[in-house]
Each structure stands twice: as C-alpha cells, then as structure tokens.
Amino acid sequence: MNFEKKTAANVKQAVPFFRVSNMEESLRYYIDDLGFEMTKKWIDDGKLRWCWLEIGEAALMLQEFRKEGHDSWNPSCKVGEGASIYFVCEDALAIYRDAATQGIKVSRNPFVGNRMWVVPFADPDGYRIYFESRTDVPEETEDSPQHH
Hints:
Layout: H1 3-10, E1 17-20, H2 23-33, E2 37-44, E3 47-55, E4 58-64, E5 84-88, H3 92-101, E6 111-113, E7 116-122, E8 128-134
Parallel strand pairs: 1-4, 5-8
Antiparallel strand pairs: 2-3, 3-4, 6-7, 7-8
C-alpha cells in the first residue's frame, strides 16, 4: 500500500478550530440556537477556554483567546471574517425551519447552489456556517418563510 492510500485510510475527520472573542456568546449561538452539543471541554482558572462541539457526525472546536498576558491576541477585525464551514446534511431546509421557529435569523434566505440547498448563518464572531443538502430544484432557486 502506498503512502497516499495509507494516509487516506487513516484520516477520519476534519474538525475546524474557531478562535472566539466571547465563549458564552458563542456557546449560546452554537448550542442554544443551532443545536450543537458540548462533548469535551477545558477549564483554565475556573473559565471555560476550549470546547469540542458536535452536531450529528460533525464537530468543531471553540477557544476563547486571552486578551491580556501570555498567549494573548487582540485581533484587528472580527476573528471569523473570511472563514466558512459547510455541513452536509440530509435536509438543510429542516434546519432552516427549526431555526426560523426559534427566531434565529439566517444571513440570507436558503438558496440552491451546485445542486444543493444552502442555508447560511453567521456566528457572533463573523464565521460563516452553512448547512447543505442535495436537491434537484433548479439552480439559484431561493426559499422564503412563506414557503413553509
């Protein structure tokens, strides 16, 4: 077996790591609004600094950066600006409907792109979160709340 095949067989999951400016605000968004579950965490000096969140078979990590002292970071813009993650699901529109019933706003109405329904969200730090599912609906079709 060559190196590429061994490596491919060995790799199991990619997990995005988001540095966040306010852990409590991010947790409200990911857990309360989008339905992620915290399965691992690191508490440092009584403060939750890092966590592993899961939704279905997908995961992401959040870590609040220190604003002072050792390992501090003071970003010049929203920390998530320019970063996106796509979660492929069975029914992205179901996630949209669940979010809408809770009053959670998408950053744009769901639309069809590349033969997938795309449901876009933006977290408090500007990270773009997308849920997608396959469809035969024509490209660039937009969904709206009145369809439900």
